[in-house]
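To illustrate the input format used throughout this study, we show a single complete record. The first block contains the structure-token representation of the backbone; no residue identities are included at this stage. The design step must infer an amino acid for every position from geometry alone.
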């Protein structure tokens, strides 16, 4: 049986997951929420990851009901992504691997001189549009720009239909 722990922090979402023989034991996340009307910046995003990664690591181990000594390998997102958050997460992953005396695997999707995407939703372009539109309207990113746009649209739709 193989247990791996993976660290992901290539953008504004920080995640740590534990997988045992292909079964996800934990998948814990923390998202950097920017002030309304702003996108996320590398330095602030990296600070968020630095502030939350150790608590998230503890949570991931607790949810998976394992200890660090049970882990067989440590994985982390090597790229592509935003440099500052990637580096912050990589430092912690490398430190954990050294403390636990485990092999470390940098995961990067690069093949035939191109970065490859392992997986994403088909609506990423729509999501990017919603993010930008929410910034223009100075809507909060909490819980998500799309949700906040929807709530605003419902409120205005109700006003227009009541007239």
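Output of the design step:
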């Amino acid at each position: 049986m193989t247990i791996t722990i993976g660290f992901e922090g290539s953008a504004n979402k920080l995640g740590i997951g534990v997988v045992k023989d292909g079964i996800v034991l934990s998948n814990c996340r923390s998202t950097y929420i920017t002030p309304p009307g702003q996108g996320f910046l590398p330095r602030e995003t990296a600070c968020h990851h630095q502030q939350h990664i150790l608590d998230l690591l503890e949570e991931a181990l607790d949810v998976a009901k394992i200890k660090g000594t049970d882990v067989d390998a440590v994985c982390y997102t090597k790229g592509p992504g935003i440099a500052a958050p990637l580096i912050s997460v990589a430092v912690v992953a490398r430190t954990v691997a050294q403390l636990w005396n485990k092999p470390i695997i940098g995961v990067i999707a690069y093949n035939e001189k191109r970065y490859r995407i392992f997986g994403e939703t088909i609506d990423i372009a729509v999501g990017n549009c919603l993010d930008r539109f929410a910034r223009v309207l100075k809507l909060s990113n909490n819980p998500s720009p799309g949700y906040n746009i929807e709530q605003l649209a419902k409120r205005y739709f109700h006003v227009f239909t009541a007239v």
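Structural context for interpreting the output: The CA atoms of residues 48 and 81 lie 16 Å apart. The two ends are 64 Å apart (CA to CA).
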